[in-house]
Amino acid sequence: MSIWRLICLSLLLPCDTAHSLAAAGVLRRAPPPPSIAMQLGSKRVNRRKRGAQVAERQKELDRLRLERPAAPRGASRPADAAARRPPFRYLCVLDVEATCEKDARHFVHEIIEFPVVVVDLYEKAVVGEFHTYVRPTANATLSQFCTALTGITQDRVDAAPTLEQVLESFEEWRIEQKLVHSEGFAGPEDFAFAADGPWDLRFFLHAECVRKGIAKAPYFGKWVNIKSMFADFYRTRSCKIHKMLQIQNMKFEGRLHSGIDDTRNIARIALRMAEDGCSFYLNEALSPRERGPNGGVFPSL
Ligand SMILES: *[C@@H]1O[C@H](CO)[C@@H](O)[C@H](O)[C@H]1NC(C)=O
Which stretches in the chain have pLDDT values below 50? Predict the structure, then answer.
């Protein structure tokens, strides 16, 4: 099944969040007709400049707020600050790497690297990392193309746990880290996953779990699509990691297509968005049917 067919199908499925895939991820990114796009060209630059000025002012205000003496214990927080807080405290940024072959159509990908970087949106800091390689089971042999692209060697994946084991150890680690998941992602200490687009959680993780009959936790069912949130927040087109960093006056650090380095850079982008005043929300989700009973994801076998 082609990607487009998958997307069309997912548009037909019912979505229970206001900011569903259809609303936020796919439809809004249709490019305007060329004539309008050209008219918008110069305006967009001005708007971006204005956006940067607003962000600067906001940063200044935030700095002042931080330097103010702490309110006495028990005093209530200013209402506006509370209102600006995202519904969850932590983002778990995920950017997987998977088996691949040059120019191969209908290639069945398997995840081979599972890196998570935790961003605290309240403290505006990176506060944790979970990183492991993953052993593919349908075809354990990496192509040379894949090793060259990702830097992941055959030895690395041969010695690694399977995806099912990785999801179990992530769950143990999550509990140790006190990353909370409650119904609706709305608790004060809750976390939500975040990824650079729909690929990691939908086309790689979800598809592989369904194929292999692996049950995964409900927190993989809804997430923040950083790519589309970035485009909405800074009023730009959706763009690749290096371009997003450039718009934020930063540079890519590390090796492109290394899962952990990509993830750290996406976390930097998310952090800068938070500093610039972005209120994160869940803008992408699997459909309720895909998520299965009790909000958890179960294989459709
Ligand atoms: C497994 O993957 C490798 C690398 O892509 C490929 O060369 C090989 O033919 C595959 N094996 C099978 C049984 O599909």
Answer: 1-2, 4-45, 60-61, 63-83, 299-301
Tens digit of each residue's pLDDT (9 = 90 or more) over 231-255: 999 999 999 999 999 999 999 999 9
- Whose alpha carbon is nearest atom 7 of ligand 1? 143
Ligand 1 close to Cβ of residue 246 (< 6 A): no
Is residue 19 flagged as an active site residue? no
| 14 in Cβ contact with 289 (< 8 Å) | yes
pTM, rounded to two decimals: 0.73
Ligand 1 contact, 39 CB (< 6 A): no
For residue 139, give the ligand 1 atom closest to its CA.
Answer: 1
Q: Evaluate whether 141 touches 54 at the Cβ level (below 8 Å).
A: no
Q: Is there a contact between 286 and 202 (Cβ–Cβ < 8 Å)?
A: yes
Report the pLDDT value the prediction gives residue 104, as an integer from 0 to 100. Answer: 87
Give the Å distance between the CA of 138 and the centre of ligand 1.
10
List Cα–Cα distances, 20 to 186, 192, 226, in angstroms: 17, 15, 14
Q: Residues 153, 94: contact at Cβ < 8 Å?
A: no
